[in-house]
Amino acid sequence: MGDSTSVPAVIVVMGVSGSGKSTVGALLAERLQVPFLEADDLHPAANRATMAAGRPLTEQDRRPWLQDLARWIRQVTASGSGGVMACSALRYEYREVFRRAGAGVWFLHLAVGEAAARRRVAGRAGHFMPAALVDSQYADLEPLRPDEPGLTVDAEESAQAIVNQASAALRTIG
């Protein structure tokens, strides 16, 4: 990997919609010179349509998507390249799916207040996730537990400041 930081195989940049996952994830992947995956890109059309209609996904809707993401984690882990994935990963059980998929999964939780998340989502053009679903995301959000490897940061910081914080934290675990 390009940065001298010794990094876990996969870094999952997580948080509610509007927290900045895609921006931070892409910047972090660029710094580390590893592949980047926007998890939303793997949602089937039916899931996107459900969310665009203002309805949260069911566990049945999510299951195949989570398995596709776990497959990506296994692939980048096996390739030795590592990677960064932007994914809501709101619930502990979803993060456990990722941790079981490959050794060395580390989470960067972008914590943001509800008002800021709603404002950010409402200001996005062309995204399938409406601001109306932000409440359901907070209802599902389970912050990182002490047994989960990762870091929680203030998503109101600049994307570059967050990448710097993550890089510094990653250096301490290498």
What's the short story on this structure?
The protein has one domain (about 10-174): 3-Layer(aba) Sandwich (Rossmann fold), CATH 3.40.50.
Notable traits:
5-stranded parallel beta sheet, nucleotide-binding, kinase, EC 2.7.1.12, globular, alpha/beta, 174 residues, Rossmann fold, Therm_gnt_kin, disordered N terminus, transferase, 5 strands, 47% helix, 7 helices
Kindly describe this structure.
With 174 residues, the protein is an alpha/beta fold. The protein has a single domain (10-173), classed as P-loop containing nucleotide triphosphate hydrolases (Rossmann fold, 3-Layer(aba) Sandwich). It has helices spanning 21-32, 45-52, 59-79, 92-101, 114-122, 134-140, 159-173; strands at residues 10-14, 36-38, 83-86, 105-111, 150-154. The chain has a 5-stranded parallel β-sheet. The longest helix is centred in the middle third of the chain and has 21 residues, at 59-79. Residues 1-5 have low confidence and may be disordered. Belongs to the gluconokinase GntK/GntV family. One of its GO terms (molecular function) is ATP binding. It comes from Actinacidiphila cocklensis. Pathway: Carbohydrate acid metabolism.
Give the SSE layout.
Layout: E1 10-14, H1 21-32, E2 36-38, H2 45-52, H3 59-79, E3 83-86, H4 92-101, E4 105-111, H5 114-122, H6 134-140, E5 150-154, H7 159-173
Parallel strand pairs: 1-3, 1-4, 2-3, 4-5
Helix pairs in contact: 1-7, 3-4
